[in-house]
Structures are given as structure tokens and as C-alpha cells.
Design a protein that fits this description.
Elements lengths: L1 H13 L5 E3 L3 H43 L7 H24 L7 H32 L1 H83 L5 H29 L3 H13 L6 H12 L6 H16 L7 H41 L1 H53 L5 E3 L2
Parallel strand pairs: 1-2
Length: 424
């Protein structure tokens, strides 16, 4: 028992807590942790650049010697080719020298320098390879020295590439951590903004809900007013009258529908000149197809008599059975349209009378205003609720993304040294 107690004390004393760093200090902490490696990288890069600069200066001197060298006695054609080749080599190397500019001590700039210098060097060699053989024939020593200098530059670039590759993971870790840190900051800002918008929109929603509840309460209060029973009775009567009027209009439309084929034949024959219709007949035909209930009863009778005559004389060219049915339909319209028209006008007059009586009631205008306001508020409420829902979905996504980025940052930092990041 005493031994277990002693082990607990020793365990507590020897156990060390994982050090913690605040989130806003992570980037500086990483830079400090990697500083020794980064410093060594930049020192090595500086030494290579010093060698490149020295080689570049030597190349400039050797190009000068090459340019002023006197060629040996040769045939004119050989001299011409050799001198032209020398000029081309000098031109290409001078272009290369002009482009070799030592960059600032920044990893990205150093990497970019290598890529650009390597491409320029390869291009120079490719463009001067043919000239090299011709110039070497006249100036073997000078060409050999210049080419040796170029090879030294190429070796130094290869040395720089090895250094860049060696530290790529290290620099990549630092750049990656910086990127994750910025992602976390951006996500935190977005989450704060979304929460603020949800709060503001929620307040706006409560305002419209209050207005909507108020409208609904005032509408309910109307049912207790003295005018309410009269208003409800008139509205019920208006609804029934409108349904009756619509039924009559539908019945009249259905009454004219069986003659549609005959009407279409009349339109075609009039258009082709086979049978010309009078202006009045054209007007009646158009209304028969579009809105027969709006026609005058006397005009309908005259028009149907004319249609019946065309059918009887077989002017429209319908088959016997269809022609007989159409003639029967014209007679049915002549017999029934006037009664239906009278009924339609009567019910229309009654509808106008009821609407006038409703509009004369104070409660009518109040009810219409409140219903419009209620519908408007409810529409706004629906839109705001959808907006809040969308924001909450987006907020959840951003929250999950933030947690993923926090885990990624912790993993990257712990690959350097075990620490705990305090995000709050």
C-alpha cells in the first residue's frame, strides 16, 4: 500500500504537461523553431550566389578575350563562317549574363531564380551549339575557356537546386502552416459575420412576426363587430353569385364549342375568297370563338341563321353527319342563348350590387387592408426564415471546415515539436 502511494507521487512529479502556445503566436513560434534551419539555408544559398557572381565576372572577362582574339590565316569562306559563329556565341552568352541577377534572400525568389536561370542557360546552349563547332575551329583555346565558364555556372545552378530540394519540405511546412493559419482566421471572421447576420435577421424576423400577429388579432377582432354578420353574409352571397355567373359563362362556351369546326372552315374560306363574310359576320365569328357570352342575343340569332344557311347549302363542306349535328346546334343556340344571356346579365348586375354594398361597409376596407398587410408580412417572414436557414447551414459547414483546419494546423505544428495550440 505504501509503495503504491509513493509511486503516485513520483508519477505526478515526473509527468510533464504538454506546453501550450496561443493561436496568434503560432506563426512566430514556427519561424523561431525553424530559424536555425532557415538561417543555414540562406547562408548556403548566399555562398552559392557568391560563387555564381564570381563565375559570371570571369565569364565576362573570358568573353572579352574571345571577342578580341585574332583568327589564324584561313580561307575567306571558313573565316566568314567562324567569325559569324563567334558573334552568335558572344551574343547568346551576353544575353545569359544580363539575365543572371542575384535575387533577395527569400525562398520563393531563390527558387524562381533557379528555374529562370536554368531555362535561360539551356536555351543559350541550344541556340549556340552549332556555332560552337565552327568557332572552335578558329579559336579553340578561347572557346574552350568560355565553355568551361558556362559549365561552371551550370554546376553551381545544380548545386543550388540540390540545396532548394533539401529544404523544400522544411519551407513547405512553414508555408503550409502560414496558409492554414490564414484559412483559420478567414473562417473565424466568416463565422462571426454569419452569427451577426443571423442575430440581426432574427431581430428583423421577430419584428415581422409581431406585425403579423397584430394583423391576425385585429382580423379576429373584426368578427366581434356589429357589421361582421352582414359582411359575412354579403361575401357568401357574392361568392355564390360569382360561381353562378361562371357556370352560365361556361355553359354558353360549351354551347358554341361543337360549331368550332364550322367556324374554322368559315375563317379559311373567307381568307381564301371562296366565301366572303361581311364585317358584322366576321365580328360575330371572332366573338363566337373567343367569348360568346359577351355577344348580343339578336346578333347571335342573326349570325346563327347565317351559319345554318351555309351548312344547309353545304358551303362549308362538312360530312353529312357532322353537318346535321352542326345545324342542330345552331338551332339549339338560337333557342337558348337569349335566356342564358338574360340570366348572365341579371347575375352580373346582382354581383355589382353586392360588391357596392360590401364596399360601403367600413369593415370591408379594414379587412382588405389587414389581409393585404398580413399576406405581405407572412411573405417576408417566409423569406427571412429561409435566409436564416441558409445561413445556419452555411455556418455549420464553415464550423466543420474550421475544425478540420485546426486539426491540420495541430498536426503540422506537432510534426516540428509537440505542443498544444490554444485557439480560444
Amino acid at each position: 500500500m505504501e509503495l503504491k502511494w509513493l509511486n503516485k507521487i513520483i508519477g505526478k512529479e515526473t509527468r510533464q504537461e504538454t506546453p501550450a502556445i496561443a493561436f496568434h503566436e503560432v506563426e512566430n513560434w514556427v519561424a523561431d523553431e525553424l530559424k536555425a534551419d532557415l538561417d543555414e539555408f540562406f547562408k548556403s544559398a548566399a555562398r552559392i550566389f557568391a560563387e555564381i557572381e564570381a563565375t559570371k565576372e570571369q565569364l565576362v572577362r573570358d568573353i572579352g578575350v574571345f571577342e578580341t582574339a585574332e583568327p589564324p590565316e584561313m580561307q575567306p569562306r571558313v573565316l566568314k563562317v567562324g567569325l559569324a559563329a563567334r558573334d552568335n556565341i558572344i551574343k547568346q552568352i551576353n544575353m545569359l549574363i544580363d539575365k543572371i541577377n542575384i535575387p533577395p534572400m527569400d525562398y520563393s525568389a531563390i527558387r524562381e531564380f533557379y528555374v529562370t536561370a536554368h531555362i535561360n542557360l539551356e536555351n543559350m546552349l541550344e541556340k549556340s551549339v552549332k556555332s560552337h563547332h565552327s568557332a572552335r575551329y578558329l579559336f579553340p583555346k578561347e572557346v574552350g575557356v568560355v565553355i568551361s565558364d558556362v559549365r561552371d555556372v551550370k554546376k553551381l545552378l545544380t548545386k543550388l537546386k540540390l540545396l532548394i530540394d533539401e529544404k523544400e519540405d522544411l519551407i513547405g511546412t512553414f508555408s503550409g502552416i502560414s496558409g492554414v493559419i490564414q484559412n483559420i482566421i478567414d473562417l473565424q471572421d466568416t463565422i462571426v459575420e454569419h452569427n451577426l447576420r443571423i442575430g440581426n435577421t432574427g431581430s428583423e424576423l421577430e419584428g415581422f412576426r409581431h406585425k403579423s400577429d397584430n394583423c391576425a388579432a385585429r382580423l379576429e377582432q373584426l368578427s366581434d363587430s356589429t357589421e361582421w354578420s352582414s359582411f359575412v353574409e354579403l361575401e357568401v352571397g357574392l361568392k355564390r353569385a360569382c360561381e353562378e355567373r361562371d357556370a352560365i359563362e361556361t355553359g354558353v362556351t360549351e354551347l358554341f364549342m361543337p360549331l368550332n369546326k364550322a367556324f374554322k372552315r368559315m375563317e379559311k374560306q373567307d381568307a381564301s375568297g371562296r366565301h366572303t363574310l361581311s364585317a358584322k359576320q366576321k365580328e360575330s365569328l371572332d366573338m363566337s370563338l373567343k367569348s360568346p357570352i359577351d355577344m348580343d342575343a339578336a346578333d347571335v340569332t342573326d349570325f346563327m341563321i347565317g351559319v345554318c344557311k351555309l351548312l344547309g347549302d353545304d358551303v362549308l363542306g362538312l360530312k353529312d353527319r357532322k353537318r346535321d349535328k352542326a345545324i342542330s346546334q345552331t338551332k339549339q343556340i338560337i333557342d337558348s342563348f337569349a335566356l342564358k344571356k338574360d340570366a348572365y346579365q341579371s347575375i352580373s348586375s346582382r354581383i355589382i350590387e353586392i360588391e357596392d354594398r360590401i364596399s360601403s361597409l367600413t369593415i370591408s376596407e379594414t379587412k382588405t387592408t389587414l389581409e393585404l398587410e398580413l399576406a405581405t408580412n407572412n411573405g417576408r417572414i417566409a423569406r427571412i426564415e429561409q435566409e436564416i436557414e441558409n445561413l445556419r447551414v452555411e455556418l455549420e459547414m464553415r464550423g466543420n471546415e474550421l475544425e478540420d483546419q485546426k486539426r491540420a494546423l495541430s498536426d503540422a505544428v506537432n510534426s516540428i515539436k509537440t505542443v498544444r495550440i490554444a485557439f480560444d
